[in-house]
Design goal:
The chain is mostly helical and 483 residues long. It is 56% helix and 6% strand. The chain contains 15 helices and seven strands. α6 runs parallel beside α10.
């Protein structure tokens, strides 16, 4: 169980009106212990931690709350707003709370009896996301694809089983990184809209957009979409995995034995752990290429499009704030006959239709260069026999499949004979020209002459067949005089 022993109320320090200050204390302490700012080794003494907490409490704000809380975290009615006399007293309270609820551990040196307060394992793991959430340090998450490829190549060449486990872990982070990046883009898009709605500042919206493109897009997203694209390394990873699968059976059996020793919790009856890990890496690469990468591109496109629309709109409003259009709208709003004028305008525009050109159908064609004309005089060369034969055959083929409305009218005149109605079953088929005419018989109904007879088609809803068509609709062609 997670909430057991002294972890039963693990998250209580992060509740109440002092939660932002406690989070800032955890962030600053984590930076002093586990980042490049670490000055005192693995653990800090009590006074050093109180100094760090005092600095953090000065930075962080105190959130508003209706009720104050006592030192144990329980709400107390009627408590005073300022319950701490100074920052040191509040820092002591934060330190005691974090130790009591399992974020920090108190360790006493048996020789010197000096007490240190390092992070507990759970406290360190839960503090790390709080630090990375607003961290500006250099991150290399986009290298997970190359790390997967490098670890697989190292495993294929040296046979060290830990390289395969590293590749398996790196491949898991690829999909997680894409998910985090998509969520960050969506959050930034919502923040941009909220800030614009609240402030309507063109310069601030523009600065924030370009700041994101310079600080976040170029160092991480641009690399992930180009140099470190999963599509680029997918084939290379597939080739390395295929090379691993072709290794000797004795070597693969040794790898399987080592994996079962190192990862007993993943062992299942009847399943090869080596094959399962290789299949999992391939499946993660496939999902990253086919699902996550298009989703990331779509989210980035939506973010840039939204930013472009907002910046254009704000620029237009800013430039037109003192224009004649704004004055005219103000006059219309102050006019007592506003409703009557708008109603009359709506009636006049009721039949108005506005059609815009589809931008997807608009293409910019490049002007083709005219081919130079050869004006040199050349002697006439007689055509060879093969060339003449090809020309004659091509002319015969063109004439054989040349079919016009005159041929169709002649065919229908012969088919109808003296009658005025005929079924598609009874249309004559004496030669290839009749077969072409039958396949175009329905076109006769679309051709009408002014003042002359017209052909009417009546479908029966049934189908028929003959020696040339497996199935065709049955209909009647009837010749009627124009009204």
């Amino acid at each position: 169980m997670f909430f057991a022993d002294h972890y039963q109320h693990f998250f209580r320090p992060l509740t109440g009106k002092y939660r932002e200050q406690v989070v800032e204390c955890l962030r600053l302490l984590y930076e002093r212990l586990y980042t490049a700012k670490a000055d005192y080794g693995e653990s800090l003494a009590r006074e050093q931690i109180l100094e760090i907490f005092s600095e953090a409490l000065t930075r962080a704000p105190q959130l508003d709350s209706d009720d104050a809380e006592d030192i144990s975290g329980q709400k107390v009615a009627g408590a005073r707003e300022h319950r701490f006399r100074n920052l040191r007293e509040q820092a002591v309270w934060v330190l005691n709370s974090l130790v009591e609820y399992g974020w920090l551990e108190k360790q006493v040196d048996s020789a010197t009896l000096a007490a240190t307060f390092p992070f507990s394992r759970r406290g360190r793991l839960f503090t790390q996301p709080l630090v990375e959430l607003n961290s500006t340090r250099v991150r290399t998450r986009h290298r997970n694809t190359r790390n997967t490829l490098n670890a697989l190549e190292a495993f294929a060449s040296r046979g060290e089983i830990h390289d395969l486990i590293d590749a398996w872990e790196y491949s898991e982070r690829i999909v997680a990184d894409f998910t985090d990046m998509i969520a960050e883009l969506e959050e930034r898009k919502r923040e941009l809209v909220r800030e614009v709605e609240a402030q309507l500042l063109v310069q601030q919206a523009t600065d924030e957009f370009f700041s994101f493109m310079e600080s976040r897009f170029q160092p991480d997203l641009a690399i992930r979409l180009s140099a470190d694209s999963v599509e680029k390394h997918r084939d290379a990873i597939g080739r390395v995995i295929a090379r691993i699968r072709r290794k000797d059976k004795s070597q693969k059996a040794e790898w399987e034995r080592r994996l079962r020793q190192l990862l007993p919790e993943l062992v299942e009856e009847g399943r090869s752990l080596l094959w399962w890990m290789l299949d999992t890496i391939e499946d993660r690469m496939r999902r990253a290429c086919e699902v996550k990468l298009p989703a990331l591109r779509h989210a980035l496109h939506g973010f840039t499009k939204r930013a472009d629309i907002i910046i254009r709109q704000l620029s237009y409003l800013h430039s037109q704030s003192q224009g004649a259009f704004t004055d005219l709208c103000q006059q219309l709003g102050d006019n007592p006959q506003r409703d009557e004028m708008l109603t009359r305008l709506g009636q006049q525009l009721g039949s108005f239709q506005l059609r815009l050109c589809d931008p997807k159908q608009t293409q910019l064609w490049q002007r083709q260069r005219r081919q130079p004309v050869n004006t040199r005089m050349e002697e006439e060369q007689p055509l060879a026999e093969d060339s003449r034969r090809e020309i004659v055959l091509q002319q015969l083929l063109d004439q054989a499949f040349n079919f016009n409305s005159g041929d169709l009218r002649s065919y229908l005149q012969q088919a109808l004979g003296s009658g005025r109605r005929i079924s598609s079953r009874d249309l004559p088929l004496d030669n290839a020209r009749d077969l072409l005419a039958m396949s175009h018989a329905l076109e006769a109904a679309a051709v009408s002459q002014d003042g002359g007879p017209r052909v009417v088609v009546e479908f029966t809803g049934e189908t028929a067949s003959n020696d040339f068509f497996d199935q065709f609709d049955e209909y009647y062609l009837e010749l009627k005089d124009s009204d």
